[in-house]
Design a protein that fits this description.
elongated; about 110 residues; mainly alpha
Amino acid sequence: MNEKKKANSLDKRLLTGGIILLISTCFMFVLGNIFPYTGLQAIVTYPATFILNSIVVLLGVYMTRKLAGFFYILVWTLAFFLAIHFVIYLFPQDFGPSVYEVLSRKIFHS
């Protein structure tokens, strides 16, 4: 019984991490449509972003193996926002202001 509960917990953690990885990857492609001038930097930054987000997800899976309730949700929420931060921060711009500057202008100054 205990092994089955542990396996379900691992499945739940892997599913949560997979969803975060899928959302951050989709967000990377959305940014690619909004900011198309990435140049050759995208060849390096897209895989680097995906690898960093995978590391964040794996750390989330590892950290939540014995957590439940509030701390479980807190770890996955932080992992989600960290993954989105990596996508935005590492997104390449060939010219013009950074993605953070453009998004903050559109969100806070409109």
